[in-house]
Amino acid sequence: MREKNPRRGGGPRPSRVQSGARSERPPAVAAGRVHKARAAAGVGSRREVERWIREGRLQVNDAVPELGAGVVPGDRITLDGRPVRWRASAVKESHALLYHRSPGDALDLKAATSRAALHLRLPRSAGRWLAIQPLPPVDGGLEILTDDGSWAHRVSQGTHALTVDYLLRMRGPLNDELVEEFRVATDCEGEPMEILQAAAQYGEGANHWLTVTVRATRSALVRHWWAARGIIVSRLMRVRFGPVQLGRDLPRGHSRAMTSAERSALLAEIEAAKRAHDERAAAGEP
Predict the structure, then answer these.
(1) Architecture of domain 24-90 in this structure
(2) Are strands 140-146 and 232-241 parallel, antiparallel or unpaired?
(3) Which terminus of the chain has a lower count of CB atoms within 10 Å, N or C?
(4) pLDDT by residue, tens only, the chain of 286 residues
């Protein structure tokens, strides 16, 4: 007599896995760093992977790896003793772009995926474009975009320590006394500002130009500070972001790939600025 198939007859059905336990299943891991495995489809978040490593649950070649350790095809990876399936198709190349945005143009990155990125003249990407410390729509200039969430998180954590250059077009009675008052200003509307340098170029008419170097200071604060003194900032452009410059070779509304040297220089300056900040804080300096 043929035995009944438990999946087709009256036999018991296999129990379903509760939705809350799905993230505990062995994920598919792409080549790269273990804690960045979330870049591959079907993998838990970076924090989940880091937690698995700290708890000793995730092992590479029967040993618990260090955070940030690399994995390559051929490594044996297990989660709670169960083998983790590799998914080579999940590996994707990450991109970082310099984008010259015109003042007033919306940077709608929520829609800027695949074909929808064409209105921003961005290249197609398998992921979603993210902006590093984006400017308000009223301002323009240099924007840094990436489709790598891990890289965006790493850079964003240190942007407060970077110096930034703004170029302002002013309309009103600008003079050296006001420029010096702005240079030594420490707050606007109760929010701290750090102005490192300010230099004016006076025009013959009502318009003047001001070059400003700041740290951890939003462009909106710069506008509000001058507006409170009767001077209108008719245009504000970000022309430098840390070591990255907005060159004349990048027209408005266009983008180009960041070079490996630019990406390395940006991360290196972030790390150096953070170390300097920590040293000042340890010494009790502002």
Answers:
(1) Roll (3.10)
(2) parallel
(3) N
(4) 555 554 444 544 444 434 333 444 444 444 445 555 433 433 455 677 778 888 888 888 888 877 666 666 667 888 888 887 655 444 456 789 999 999 988 787 765 555 546 667 787 776 778 899 999 999 999 999 998 888 898 899 888 889 999 999 999 999 999 999 999 999 998 999 999 999 999 988 889 999 999 999 999 999 999 999 999 999 999 999 999 999 999 999 999 999 999 999 999 998 888 888 788 788 887 6
Is the CB of residue 62 less than 8 Å from the CB of residue 76?
A: yes
**Whole-model pTM above 0.70?**
no
Cβ atoms within 10 Å, residue 235: 18
Q: What class has domain 163-241?
A: alpha beta
> Is CATH 3.40.50.11690 correct for 96-159+247-282?
no
Domain boundary assignment for the chain: 24-90, 96-159+247-282, 163-241
